[in-house]
């Protein structure tokens, strides 16, 4: 199956570069481009892409609001936020808006293509840098009462490792289980908590104190 991608960035050269990089993969096809948030929303409705690569900083409607509107109209679409730095102060708002991942524009070609495939398959991207931003967001925030009681002890353990930035393979190694079992635990936790994806699972873990903000990446 070919993954349909929409590029949203106000810089034509950036869009051309990403189009060229993605065009080298037989499983990916760029179906359209947008130079503003407003145009990204219109193009997403018209072209029905599987994944949108969304610049976070655009004139007029920014990538955060565009992400909200795209997902409100097409919940099945996945959005990867693009920025110049992984310390962008808007990263938390972008994830809250429903973005499934966050990449810097200096991303390696193979990593970019892999990122699109990952989110198209229903998974999410959280780099250590992005995880740190989520931690910082909750460093001085009062925590609500625990709302993870629906999870089993093992699911809580898996969610904690996800929130620390661990991959499925790393979680499997830490708990001496298979990567498939780790993925199953994550999927069940997401379903039980009524969440969209792995990103929201991480945010929920920090919101409810499952992971301490003092632990940067669990490493």
Give Rg in angstroms: 17 Å
Helix coverage percent: 40-55%
Q: In terms of per-residue confidence, which ranges show pLDDT below 50 for 5 or more consecutive residues?
A: 215-219
Mean pLDDT: 84
Fraction in beta strands: 5-15%
Output the helix-strand order.
EHEHEHEHEHHHHHH
The number of distinct β-strands equals 5
Looking at this structure, what is the CATH superfamily of the largest domain? Response regulator
From the spread of the alpha carbons, the general shape counts as globular
**Spatial sequence of strands, sheet with the most strands:** 2-1-3-4-5
Text of the CATH class of the largest domain: Alpha Beta
InterPro entries: CheY-like_superfamily, NreC/VraR/RcsB-like_REC, Sig_transdc_resp-reg_C-effctor, Sig_transdc_resp-reg_receiver, Tscrpt_reg_LuxR_C, WalR-like
Keywords: DNA-binding, Phosphoprotein, Transcription, Transcription regulation
GO molecular function: DNA binding
Domain HTH luxR-type: 144-209
Structural commentary:
The protein has about 220 residues and is of the alpha/beta class. The chain folds into two domains: about 5-125, Rossmann fold; about 140-205, Winged helix-like DNA-binding domain superfamily/Winged helix DNA-binding domain (Arc Repressor Mutant, subunit A), CATH 1.10.10.10. The protein is about 50% helix and about 15% strand. It has ten helices and five strands. Strands 2-1-3-4-5 form a five-stranded parallel sheet, sandwiched between helices. Helix 4 links the parallel strand 4 (about 80-85) and strand 5.
């Amino acid at each position: 199956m070919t993954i349909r991608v929409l590029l949203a960035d106000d810089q034509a050269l950036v869009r051309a570069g990403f189009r060229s990089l993605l065009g080298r993969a037989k499983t990916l096809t760029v179906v359209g481009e947008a130079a503003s948030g407003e145009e990204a929303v219109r193009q997403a409705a018209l072209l029905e892409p599987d994944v949108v690569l969304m610049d976070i900083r655009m004139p007029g409607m920014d990538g955060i609001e565009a992400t909200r509107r795209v997902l409100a109209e097409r919940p099945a679409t996945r959005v990867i936020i693009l920025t110049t730095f992984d310390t962008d102060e808007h990263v938390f708002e972008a994830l809250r808006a429903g973005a499934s991942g966050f990449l810097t524009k200096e991303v390696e070609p193979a990593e970019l293509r892999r990122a699109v495939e990952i989110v198209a398959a229903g998974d999410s991207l959280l780099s250590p840098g992005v995880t740190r931003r989520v931690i910082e967001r909750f460093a001085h925030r009062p925590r609500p009462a625990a709302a993870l009681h629906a999870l089993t002890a093992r699911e809580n353990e898996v969610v904690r490792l996800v929130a620390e930035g661990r991959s499925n393979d790393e979680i499997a190694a830490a708990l001496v289980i298979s990567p498939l079992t780790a993925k199953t635990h994550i999927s069940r936790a997401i379903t039980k908590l009524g969440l969209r994806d792995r990103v929201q699972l991480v945010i929920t873990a920090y919101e409810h104190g499952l992971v301490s903000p003092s632990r940067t990446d669990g490493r």
